[in-house]
Amino acid sequence: MKAALIVVDMQEDFCPPNGSLAVQEARDLAPTINTLLAHPGFTLRIASQDSHPANHISFAPNHPAPNNRPFECHIEMANPAPGKESETKPQRLWPIHCVAGTKGAEIIPEIDTANIDLYVQKGMDARVEMYSAFADAFGNLDAEVNRSSVDVHLKGVLEERGITDVFVVGVAGDYCVKFTAVDAARAGLRSYLVEDAVRCVDPGLGWEEAKRELSEAGVRVVRSDGPEVAGLVGSV
Ligand code: VGL
Ligand code: ZN
Question: Which domains does the chain have, with CATH numbers?
């Protein structure tokens, strides 16, 4: 058994008090996440960062009024993969956030980044949403199109390192954390979401629905003080 920790999107724009897409209590996760980062049982510690160009499809101001209210409105998004353009999905609109190179895209200073072995930048292709650190919203994983969206082939890295178990924490529990944990399970890994180390955009119903999807995908929802984390034994 070899475990990896994936710290998802602990960036200024997702944190109060000034983040443009602040998730309630996100900054308060830092001590719990730092304790996990210091756990000797992880072979690999990864941090993902949402990293969008200014013309990203998910940014509300990039769409015409009146159907461009952030949080409330959805637009139709097409699969950017060659030959698959007729496949579309509704895409929720967000405030401008995590623009590459801006303060909002930085990991918050409360996170002990000294322990992080690998960073994954995602959401870099303006044409498509990418919540999961593995694949874009259409599941494009190895295709050329996905390489313009993400700078690391995470599934390949985890396989190369012989990782069997993945623990996912960070924000947002009902978006990037959920999709990353689901894709880890789809990649054939044992996938765990550490519930007290995540916070959600929609903490009520959003999280209840997310937990149903996680359980259907075979992701186990655990706690940082539970037996799954306590039982981790490091191996290189
Ligand atoms: C996220 C909304 C938009 C996330 C990223 O990190 O969960 N949510 N972009
Ligand atoms: Zn985003």
Answer: 3-52+97-230 (3.40.50.850)
